[in-house]
Structure formats: C-alpha cells, structure tokens
Amino acid sequence: EEPKLKYERLSNGVTEILQKDAASCMTVHEKFWLRCLCVYVISLFLLQFLALGTHYGKVYLLDVQGNITQKFDVSPVKINQISLDESGEHMGVCSEDGKVQVFGLYSAEEFHETFDCPIKIVAVHPHFVRSHFKQFVTGGKKLLLYERGWMNRWKPSVLHEGEGNIRNVKWRGHLIAWANNMGVKILDMISKQRITNVPRDDISLRPDMYPCSLCWKDNLTLIIGWGNSVKICSVKERHASEMRDLPNRYVEIVFQFDTEFYISGLAPLCDQLVILSYVKEISEKTEVECCARPRLDIVQPLPESCEEISSDALTVRGFQENECRDYHLEYSEGESLFYIISPRDVVVAKERDQDDHIDWLLEKKKYEEALMAAEISQKTIKKHKILDIGLAYINHLVEKGEYDMAARKCQKILGRNTELWEFEVYKFKEIGQLKAISRYLPRRDPVLKPLIYEMVLHEFLESDYEGFATLIKEWPGDLYNNTIIVQAVVDHLKKDPQNRTLLRTLAELYTYDQRYGRALEIYLTLRHKDVFQLIHKHNLFSSIRDKIVLLMDFDSEKAVDMLLDNEDKISIDRVVEELENRPELQHVYLHKLFKRDHHKGQRYHEKQISLYAEYDRPNLLPFLRDSTHCPLEKALEICQQRSFVEETVYLLSRMGNSRSALKMIMEELQDVDKAIEFAKEQDDGELWEDLILYSIDKPPFITGLLNNIGTHVDPILLIHRIKEGMEIPNLRDSLVKILQDYNLQILLREGCKKILVADSLSLLKKMHRTQMKGVLVDEENICESCLSPILPSDASKSFNVVVFHCRHMFHKECLPVSNTVSPVQFCNICSAKHRGPGSAILEMKK
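Structure for Vacuolar protein sorting-associated protein 41 homolog, as requested:
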C-alpha cells in the first residue's frame, strides 16, 4: 500500500551537532506573522523554528532546514526539557544537574535556580509574554509553580508531591497535565483544583526507562501514552447540580486501546493518531532480544481498539543502542510535520502531497491513476506535468502491446498538439500498428498534414478493404488528396473489378469529388441504399424516372417517401404507370399516398380495393371506412368472393342491409359482443329482435345480451324467452347488473318525469285527437306497394285497404303476411325507422 508519510533527515547544522554531541530533547515552535508588502497588501506567513537540547548541556535554535541560528551554553550535563511560550520569545530549560533557567530570547529578562536534585521537566505559561501570566512549572521530586509577584520576585508554590519524580508535563491554556510514578494528573489553573488522576496501567515497567508521553490535541483533549497503552481523555464541564464539593470540571476517557509495542511519543493528525513506538525483536543469529528499528504508525482510534492506517519502520542512526526513553516525537500543527528525535539522528516526517502520490503511482506503473491524479490536482502539483505523465503512459501501453488502448489515450493526452500527433503516428507506423491509431486521429481542430491520412489509407487499402471503406465514410473528404486516393482505388479495381466494397467506396469518393453521375451509376449497379441520399441531396430525380421499380426493390419505404415528397418532379400517374407490372409495389405506394391524403389518389381507389384484398387485408377495412370514392358494390363483391366477413358486414351495413350484416356476424363470426355493438350502432328494434331470436338457445350469447341489453331493450323480453332449466354462465351477476341498470334508469326517469309530465300530457291529448280523426281516401291515393290506385275503378266490387296513421296506404293483399309471434302489422316504409304512434293501422273494408 501507498505510505501516508514521507521522511527525510534534518541535516546542515544538525549533522554537525550530532557528530560531536547527542540529542536529548527538542521542541517545535510555530507562529503566524503578518508582513506588510505595501500600503494595501499584507502577507500572512508561518514562522517555524526548533530548539534542540543535547547531552553536553547545549541548546541550539534551528530553522526548519536544520541551520543553527543561536546557541546557548546552559549546563555541562544533559538538557532534560525545553519549553517555549506561544510567542516564541521566552524559553525554559532544565538540566540533569538541577539547573532551571527561564529567559527571554530577545530581552534581558531571566530567571536562574539550582536545585539539589535533577530537574526532569519545565513548562512556561503559554502566554508568558504577558505581564500577568509570568508563570512556569518545574519538577523533580515535587511539582513547583513559580509566579512573579511584587517587585519582580518569583514565588514558588508546591502543586504536587509524594508520588515519586515528575516525569513529564504539558501546559495548554488553563490546564496543566503532568506524569509521575503513579499516573497522570490534570490541574485547572483557574480554580487551582486537580480535576483527575489517571493511573498507569502497567506498574511493572520502570517509569524512568519507559516514560509517559503526553500530548494536548486541543485545549480540552489530552492524549496519554504509557508503556503500550493509549488513552484519549476529554475535559468536560460538570453540571451545576452535580457540583457539591467537586471540581467544576471532570475528565472522561473517550478512547482506550493497547498497542503492539512500547510508546515513545504521540501526536495528533486530524482525527487520527501518530504513534512513535520502541521495538524489540529476537535476533535470528544470536536468538537474543535486541533493539529493532523504531516504528511510526498512524492509527484510527476506536472506543476500545484502533485501526492501523499505515506503519513505517524508521532507519535512524544508532537504533541498535537506543532505549525507549531515547526517542521523542514532536510535531508542528500548522504544517503536519513530525520530528522523530533520537540521540544520533533527527528525522522529519511529513504528509505526502500529490507530487509524492504521483511519484508512487508511476513507480508502481499505475499510469492511468497517476494521470487522473495529475489532472485533478494540476493547480497544486509542482514536480510533474500532465503531458509528461501521459506520454509515459502511452509508451508503457505500447511496450505492453496494448496498441488500441495506447492509440485511444492519444486523443486525450496529445490534444491539439499536431507535432506530437505526427510523431506518435510515425512511431505506430514503425511498429506496424497504423491501423490501431487510425480510428483516433483528429479530424477537426487540429488537422494533421494530408500525408498522414493518406499514409493510413494506403495501409488499409493494401490489407483491409472494409477498414478502408469505413475510414472513407467517416473521414471528411478534405483531410486527404481525393484524386490520389481515387486513382489508388481504381488501380485495385483493375485487379478485382467486382469487389463491392471497393466499388461502394469509389462511389463515395466520386460523391466527395462532386461527380454525382458516376456515383449514382455505381450505387444503382450495387443496389446500395445510399442512392436515395444521393438522389435527394443532389436533385437527381430526372435520372431515375425509369428506375422506380429498381428503387422500390432496394427499399420500398424510402423510395415511396422520396417519391411522395417530390410529386412535383415525378407525378403520381407516372409512378403508378411504372409500377403497373408490380402490383405489390403499386399497393405500397398507393397505400402511403392514401395515408397522407385521402383524396389525392381517388381515381385509384377502385384499384386499391383489389390491392388491399390481395396484399394487405388488415388495412382493407380502415380503407373502406375512410374512403369516400370507392364503389361499394365492387368492394362488396370482392369481399364476398374472398369471404372477408368483417369487411362484408361493414359494407352491408353501409349499404342499408343491416339485417344481413347482423346475420353474418352471428353465423360467421359467432361473436355476441360484436353483434351487440353492431345492434347498438344501428339502433334498430328489429335487429335486437333478430339478435334475441338467434341467441335464445345459446347460453353464452344470453349472458352477453343480459349484460348489455338493459339500456336498449327491455330485458324482460329476453328473460321470458329463456327456456326453463337452461344453464346460463354468470346468470346471477348478469341479473344483478340488469337490476342495477334498471334502478339507474328508474332514477333518471323519475328525475325527468317531473320536468316532462306537463308536456307529455299535452302532446298525448294532441296525438289522441289527431288519431281519432278520419283519413281521406280517394282516387288520387295509390298503394305504396304496387303503386296502383288504392280504390278500384269499379266501385261495386269489394276491396280491403289498410291505412296507417303515417298516411301510407296499402291493399290488404299487398302487405306481407304477419308472423305468428306478433300479429300486429306495421308500415313497411316506416318499419325501418322507430315504431312510433304513426305506424298503427286503420283497416278499411267494403
């Protein structure tokens, strides 16, 4: 996996120091400074320096490159700890001989004190530069707080004692954390109360050999590392109701876990943790435990464990001789720098940037990921260029033999750089892979030299006719010299004159060269579909008047569309005449013409009846319905000859023969739903009577009638005729539906009755008076059936005359014999209409 950090040794002055001396401690200071560049521009920059203490009692101030800026001779013995305030202007130093010094780096302010025991720790107040925060703590066997009081005198006070030597101390804000032999304490400087005691877990380890590591992540989060145990503590405010005699703050351990090795230092990294570990291992040669290289791990804390993110073993000078207490870890919050201090070496670890990430990807030959990372971070990377990475990627793909992928990447990487494009094309030619790059060559912005495209076309023409044809079709004709390519194709056709691919390609080349006549000739010879595009684009209709059948054979749909779109150039009559010997094509043309305009080809509608019947029966009925120019008798004759039931039914009904149409539906189609629908459309009582008579012995038909007859015919007429004992499917549901329809009708009738009752009575009386009147019958009246005079010429002879209230008169013998079911006679003329009051009869006898 890719490492998270990168490492380098701190050199320059540090190298000189550690050649003669050994590092014992170090601290890092950083501060933001404002620098005025001009009247309106202020620059904000981070100033960082290091303070290094040695075993020979020296303190060096260094810049971030390790150059020495200042040197202080503090003591002849080991410097134990160095502390700087937040301003970087005051330093506290303690040493093994008991000396403690606090002094200003840029002022004469100074404090000296010598104790009778080694002083291990010192920490100045973070805001020591301010006059009311002149405080520092120091510790050997006691933890002492020094405060400058009246007349600049320093007053010590004991903060803690009695639990062994003070091993470490860290001061952040108003909180001081320190470690002694028993555990870690935290003191609140505002209330001067100790708010917690965190005991150390493994008391078997010597605290001087395995010292405690303390680190403030922020003003309220303390990280503790001791032995192989890590605790992350959070300082919280106590609720007022819980105060009593307790401090107003308390500490909660939010994360706690053990590590594999002994901890020498800790530092935060966002929400993760950096741990410097002291490692021991068994030597393979001597099988004796010895010191191994220290490890720097990045872990993700979890409530009771941790997840390792990365782990690096560090090669520091003299690691074989070092102990756990010889290593220290310091960090810079602003730049995420981590300093690993050992007696003979200082190593700086920093987070890897995008340049480092890209370096690692290139090293692992992950070129595509490297290219993507460079594109995303092109504004921040300093070391790499996208083009260089891309070219390396192309070369890598070529070396692997992935020529198609390499050619595809050229589009993205080379962009508009014509020189690089031409260079890559020649490189592909050298390895015999011009075909691979051909699909990806630029065709617009940029355009390469014509020679490049001609070179690729010749490569295909020699070995791949289909590929050559594809390129000619896809590439614009102005990319290459068309005359040269045409001549090359003609030369190849001499060897293979019937090659359809070369002929088709030659036609396209002629089209590019505006020699449309030659192109059309080739297309027609090949029966190629592009002939339509060529005709339409270049208006070649005069050349195809005698080639309509051939065009229809190519693609009838495109041919018809083209012909109909250009009626002004090729007339309908000319097209129909040309297709006379191909009726199936004639039908296709006339059908589409009829779809566009029902009247434009009306003179051919009679012809179309036969064409539809022969080639396209599904569209015959829609044609009959939409056409107002086709002869119905001719259509009926054709449909009856071919037994087209649906079409015959429609024609019969359209010609007024509804009863025959209904009979055909019931006998031929056996479709009760269609029969009912037809009866509804015709709205003729006699049709309903015929339908009932036909259905009375067919249970499925009865079910259909019961479900649909209610709103048109009294269902009682049907129900009374049903034979007793006949099983009818879904009878109950049908009867329920009839009753529901009946109830609905009753409601509607009752509503209408209130509105119509007065008019109904008036009209009824008027009708009664009219019907009670006599009807004049004289010599001028004729029989509506035989058309002879209604009265005989010889008045002495007997005669029978039937006079209907509709004023139609018939000889009795001219009327049809009434059927046995209904003896009532009706006017033949009016019976086709509704049987209203005017159809009743008056009979005259003499």
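The mean pLDDT is 85.
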